[in-house]
Design a protein that fits this description.
Helix content is 35%, strand content 11%. The chain has an 8-stranded parallel barrel, surrounded by 6 helices.
Length: 322
């Protein structure tokens, strides 16, 4: 890594465009995020959609081959789709490399019997429908943390608040981190601040937010942000690789998520989708290498958070007392 920071990055095509009289206005220093991760660094990396031990092994092997640093690996099908042995294997494999493992919790509306999610409006989306769905998410959280998982992915505000209260009460470990899914990600600064106060330790925003939107969010919240640099098709299929340096400058502290467009959804995963899942897991790592190479070419690959760092720092919370 170089010592350059995202704030001093060369913008894509800048020398050639300047020579042609087409240079862009200088970046406004006021747009630069004032926040960073605890312990230093403005960005971390994440490989999503790693659906089991076999896919994880592919990711780790490819990351070693391509020299892709990984801070977090996340799974999307859910804790309930993994056996105890599979979870334990994933915990051990990531633990050996000091990588945070994040597993999705429980039932979600898109798999429920409710018909509203299949209408044009999508109804309540992935949220947990009813008490029993919340209970399933809590069951997943307790089971996963007992097996050593330290990060949980949630797609419902009530589940988030419940797990934050459970964390405060010692029902799940105090150092468990809670990550908000892109599928319910906030699209304005007021909503982002609410997720932080409900217990979110990182918040996945939709990948179609503009740079100005990120700046607006950073003026009210320093909670770590997750963003797909390349989004899967069911999240829009956006590819924002040339914006990575500016995304870091505006959105830090930021997790760079290396998703993959032009591929079918794989949740909930099973062996019937094995070949696709392993192939896409490998390609996500390659996409990460491409993004990191681009950052290096633009002198913006400095300020990466130390590998092994996972905690979010001091955040604003609602009171959990009754």
């Amino acid at each position: 890594m170089t010592d350059a920071s995202a704030t001093a990055a060369r913008r894509p095509g800048e020398p050639a465009l300047t020579a042609l009289g087409l240079s862009a206005p200088a970046p406004d220093p006021a747009d630069t995020s004032a926040h960073s991760f605890p312990g230093g660094g403005r960005w971390r990396t994440e490989i999503p959609s790693c659906e089991g031990p076999e896919a994880l092994a592919v990711v780790l092997k490819e990351a070693s081959r391509l020299d892709v640093p990984i801070h977090r690996i996340s799974q999307g099908s859910g804790v309930w789709m993994l056996s105890d042995a599979e979870i334990t294997e994933m915990v051990e494999s990531t633990g050996e490399r000091d990588i945070e493992l994040c597993l999705f919790t429980g039932p979600r509306g898109t798999w429920d019997i409710g018909g509203s999610t299949r209408t044009d409006s999508r109804g309540a989306g992935l949220r947990a429908r009813g008490h029993d769905a919340v209970a399933g998410c809590v069951e997943d959280a307790v089971r996963a943390t007992e097996l050593g998982v330290k990060c949980l992915l949630v797609a419902d505000e009530g589940v988030l608040w419940t797990l934050h209260r459970a964390r405060a009460a010692g029902i799940i470990p105090a150092d468990t981190t809670l990550k908000v899914s892109a599928l319910i990600g906030p699209v304005n600064p007021a909503a982002y601040a609410v997720y932080e106060r409900l217990g979110a330790d990182s918040v996945n925003v939709p990948s179609d937010l503009t740079l100005d939107h990120l700046t607006e969010i950073r003026r009210v919240s320093g909670a770590p942000m997750d963003m797909y640099i390349e989004a899967p098709d069911d999240l829009g299929g956006y590819i924002r690789m040339y914006e990575v340096a500016e995304l870091i400058r505006r959105g830090a502290p930021l997790y760079l998520k290396f998703g993959l467009s032009k591929t079918p959804g794989i949740y909930p995963y099973g062996q019937h989708m094995r070949e696709l899942t392993l192939a896409t897991a490998k390609e996500r790592v390659r996409r990460g290498r491409l993004a990191l190479d681009l950052l290096a070419r633009h002198g913006a690959d400095g300020d990466m958070a130390p590998l092994g760092s996972r905690l979010p720092g001091d955040l604003q919370r609602f009171e959990t007392s009754s």
